[in-house]
């Protein structure tokens, strides 16, 4: 009995100890709970960054790329074969239209010009002589007309005198009829033939002079062709000839006008009708500057390229300092034509499954509000509904926010 009673008393002591431990645990848990409640109650406002919703336009510009080209370029070749006497320019030199770039050896061409000039002078003298002969023949013809008129009048008077018996037939024939016949022969035959001959001689000499002048023009042209000139103002971009070498059909120099440069690019069919000739666009050329250049659309193809199925366009850029070089890579930012929308920074919109929401700050507290978001350009996002312009939204610090929480704005 005593042994059994001892066992019962031991079990009772174990239960008392367990109850005591359990009570201590409850007290500790209650104390911790009060401390946590006290900590939340005493917590200060949460620091956040904010931004105001504003009406704007997304930067979803269409970007097309291409390489810069000179607005005008030419490979300079010689019109006539010959040995190069002097090259007046080198790569990088700026030249004006009409400036001599290369001179060929041209002594023989100069001699041909001198000979042609002499031939022209000789032909001019021959023509002058023929023209003088024509004038003399024409004067003789006029005198023949006068002589014939006088002889005819005398002849008629002589016939009257002969008929009246005032003169004998011998006198009529010798003094009236013979001079009349001679004058008539001169007017109708001899003198006109001389005029025709003089006129023919003038024509021959005119033809000879025209031929001589043509030969002179040809000689001068060949001589001028020995001075190879710039067809337009520009910059020498290549030199392929040196003095003493033969100028044939290969390009001697390459000339480019880079006062203006252009970008050739292609635009898809869904966007081409939004562009107009004369539109100003921004062109980024990173090799030159971080700031974009202003270009103008100067050409829009009316039909798509059969290979690319896109529409070629040309954008021209003024380049007065020649900092833009042909061959540089360029990106043309075409206007997107989108309407203005309500925008907020991309970080302000928080996704919760398939729903979007923002934290709106009003009177130092935040309110969770569901919105309908639209397109984004990476920096801003369009808000289609659920928000008004001017409302302040949280852009950083949303992680620890609860509806109605007090916040401090630090931007």
Summarize the structure.
The chain has 411 residues and is an alpha+beta fold. The protein has helices spanning 2-42, 107-164, 169-225, and strands at residues 46-52, 54-56, 62-76, 82-87, 94-95, 100-104, 227-229, 234-239, 246-247, 253-267, 280-284, 293-300, 311-318, 329-334, 341-345, 350-352, 355-362, 365-376, 380-385, 392-396, 407-409. Among the domains are: 46-60 and 339-409, conserved putative lor/sdh protein from methanococcus maripaludis s2 fold (Beta Barrel); 107-225; 257-334, Elongation Factor Tu (Ef-tu), domain 3.
Strand percent estimate? 25-35%
* Uncertain ranges: 1-42
Major sheet size, sense and barrel closure: 9 strands, mixed
Indicate the percent of residues in helices. 25-40%
If you compute it from the alpha carbons, what radius of gyration comes out, rounded to the nearest whole angstrom?
A: 54 Å
Tell how many strands the DSSP assignment holds. 21
Average of pLDDT: 86
Secondary-structure-derived class: alpha+beta
| Distance separating the two termini | 83 Å
Shape: elongated
Helix and strand run: HEEEEEEHHEEEEEEEEEEEEEEE
Q: What is the tally of helical segments?
A: 3
Question: How is this structure best described in words?
Answer:
This protein is α+β, with helices and mostly antiparallel strands and 411 residues long. Among the domains are: 46-60 and 339-409, conserved putative lor/sdh protein from methanococcus maripaludis s2 fold (Beta Barrel); 107-225; 257-334, Efflux pump adaptor protein, beta barrel domain (Elongation Factor Tu (Ef-tu), domain 3, Beta Barrel). Helix content is 38%, strand content 32%. The chain is built from three helices and 21 strands. The protein has helices at residues 2-42, 107-164, 169-225; strands at 46-52, 54-56, 62-76, 82-87, 94-95, 100-104, 227-229, 234-239, 246-247, 253-267, 280-284, 293-300, 311-318, 329-334, 341-345, 350-352, 355-362, 365-376, 380-385, 392-396, 407-409. The strands form three sheets. Strands 1, 2, 15, 16, 17, 18, 19, 20 and 21 form a nine-stranded mixed sheet that branches. Strands 3-10-13-12-11-14 form a six-stranded antiparallel barrel. A four-stranded antiparallel sheet has the order 7-6-4-9. Strand 11 (280-284) and strand 12 (293-300) form a beta hairpin. Helix 2 packs antiparallel against helix 3. The two termini are 83 Å apart. Residues 1-42 have low confidence and may be disordered.
